[in-house]
Amino acid sequence: MTTSAQCPVDFITINENQVRLTAGGVFLSTLLYLLTAYWWIILFLLIDFTLRAVNKGKLSPLNLLSGLIVKIFHINYKPTDRAPKRFAAKIGVTLTFIAFGLLWAGFSTLTFYLLILILLFSFLESVFAFCAGCLLYSLLRKFSKQEPLDL
């Protein structure tokens, strides 16, 4: 992990390059929604984040696509711990669930702002390998003064 924030760990490694490609897919999907306003894109993101958050990443369309890209282009395996990425996916589930609900309730401006946040987080992960989930996790631990979350 390239950030100095304290992250959850589960000692299971995954390919950071694939994670970054998946984040790029989230970025492009979110951008596509912002350009088209097709509601089903938010639903797609919600399903994809949920699959990754509950350890079913092998079924995640964006994860499958990024895995295919890694294989086709022979992108090196760069190990990183899985837990921070699951935590980030849980944040993604929360944000897209709220965005989807707000959209259906007619609050398109609030939906827009939540999706801009997802756009920013996915951009940071994809381009700079900066895990916003790790930063949020550290802040939550600091303010709650609790033991690490069991992921």
From TrEMBL:
Domain spans labelled DUF4395: 14-142
Lineage of source species: Bacteria, Pseudomonadati, Bacteroidota, Sphingobacteriia, Sphingobacteriales
Membrane-spanning ranges: 21-47, 87-107, 113-140
InterPro entries for this protein: DUF4395 (IPR025508), UCP030042 (IPR016942)
Classification via Pfam families: DUF4395
Keyword Protein transport among UniProt keywords: no
Coiled-coil annotated residue ranges, if any: none
The protein's name: DUF4395 domain-containing protein
Keywords: Membrane, Transmembrane, Transmembrane helix
